[in-house]
Write a structure and sequence with these properties.
The longest helix is centred in the N-terminal third of the chain and has 42 residues, at 30-71. This protein has helices at 4-23, 30-71, 75-104, 116-121, 129-138, 144-150, 153-170, 175-195, 199-212, 216-221, 223-249, 253-270, 273-287, 292-305, 308-324, 331-346, 355-365, 373-406. It is globular. By secondary structure, the chain is an all-alpha fold. It has 18 helices and no strands. Helix 2 packs across helix 9 (199-212).
Length: 415
């Protein structure tokens, strides 16, 4: 029987092919409706299972990870190395996007008339920088039961950080609770193993629907921008991140791809770093050899704040919108886009099209019309696939880099 890795890869190819064939059928065709309905059901079950496990997994993995790091006095090194890595890769992604967008000038000469209907029917949720900071900071600290119920990952993550530190501060007094958390994490990882056997079907179903429902005419009209985003994002994922990995760990990109492709393909199909997190943790520990204490800290944090693909997309999209309306952004304005996109991408939730939530803030930061986001919405779901895959790739590379630079190699129960 083929390995799960190979089954997922084959299923992704079949999903893209079937979706393309369905796209050739008339909208009213019965076969098209039937296949899309079945795909929607299977995809919804797969995503539902991942969401079911997500919140308890984030909480337990962060608690155990922080407690393990604190026990070895590694938490400061790992925390600082992780944040520096996240900032570096996001900055490199946005710099790449801005340079390429300045050279190729996507959107120049295009007519806004073709997007008039979308612009007219869209109402942007405008948020100033102070409002964004207030919303972001107040969202960090919530009633943990409310955060668990609403699936607010950032709040769950913050509560888990406090619990992990408290377990270490309490020493032997809280050893039973720490042991319970470790056993709960083991149990959740076992459940993820079961869910993974549905992954080939779930990924195939999601890709069938995604490819079949794309508006080909709109893609052709915006082909330059779509190609720019795909090209720069793939360059970041295929050259920049593997380059950092090799420079720090001497691990080959092919070795990394073989060990991480389950997670990357799942991220591509679901467009959600959070949904792919259970599989990312499994790949990091079982395939890439990342210790649990490192993976359990870096990956849940990365799924929340490390969004290389999203930062790249928001920076390029701001210049695209500026070109569409005939505005010339100065070097200072592009620096504002750079800083704003870095902050906004860090605050974007790990859900499909989350970048659209913060894109408005990036546009407003340099005086571009927030309503122009309507131009991007029809193609966002397609672009979201590749940028989410790169987001997850960046997290997995980060876990290996942090382990190489910040881990002291000491053994720990559950590591």
């Amino acid at each position: 029987m083929p390995s799960l890795n190979r089954l997922i890869f084959i299923a992704a190819g079949i999903g893209i092919l079937v979706g393309w064939l369905l796209g050739l059928l008339p909208q009213e065709a019965g076969l098209r409706d039937g296949v899309l309905y079945a795909s929607t059901l299977v995809g919804a079950v797969f995503i539902g299972l991942l969401k079911m496990i997500l919140i308890p997994l984030v909480f337990t993995s962060i608690v155990v990870g922080v407690a393990s790091l604190q026990a070895h006095h590694q938490v400061h090194r790992v925390w600082i190395t992780t944040l520096l890595y996240f900032m570096l890769t996001s900055a490199l992604a946005m710099l790449l996007a801005l340079v390429v967008a300045n050279v190729l000038k996507p959107g120049s000469g295009m007519s806004l008339a073709m997007f008039a209907d979308a612009m007219a029917s869209f109402e942007a949720r405008q948020m100033t920088m102070p409002e964004f900071f207030q919303h972001f900071l107040t969202g960090l600290f919530k009633n943990p039961f409310e955060a668990f119920t609403n699936g607010d990952i950032l709040s769950v993550l913050m509560f888990a950080l406090f619990v992990g530190v408290a377990l270490v501060a309490g020493g032997q007094r809280y050893q039973t609770i720490l042991q319970l958390m470790q056993e709960l994490l083991d149990m959740l990882l076992r459940i993820i193993g079961w869910i993974m056997w549905l992954a080939p079907l779930g990924i195939m179903a999601l890709l069938i629907r995604l490819v079949a429902e794309q508006d080909v005419a709109l893609l052709v009209s915006m082909l330059g921008f779509v190609v720019l985003i795909f090209g720069t994002t793939l360059f970041h994922g295929a050259v920049v991140l593997p380059g950092i990995l090799y420079a720090v760990t001497r691990k080959s990109p092919l070795w990394f791809w073989r060990g991480s492709r389950e997670a990357i393909i799942t991220a591509f199909a679901t467009s959600s770093s959070s949904a792919a997190l259970p599989i990312s943790l499994r790949c990091a520990q079982e395939n890439l050899g990342v210790k649990r204490r490192i993976a359990g800290f870096v990956l849940p944090l990365g799924a929340t704040v490390n969004m290389d693909g999203t930062a790249l997309y928001e920076a390029a999209a701001a210049l695209f919108v500026a070109n569409l309306i005939g505005a010339e952004l100065s070097l200072v304005q592009q620096l504002v886009v750079f800083m704003t996109a870095m902050i906004a991408s860090s605050g974007a939730p790990g859900i499909p099209s989350a970048g659209m939530v913060t894109m408005v803030m990036v546009l407003q930061a340099v005086g571009l019309p927030a309503e122009a986001i309507a131009i991007l919405l029809p193609i966002d779901r397609l672009l979201d696939t590749v940028r989410t895959a790169v987001n997850v790739e960046g997290d997995l590379v980060g876990s290996l880099v942090v382990q190489e630079l910040a881990d002291d190699g000491a053994e720990y129960q559950g590591a």
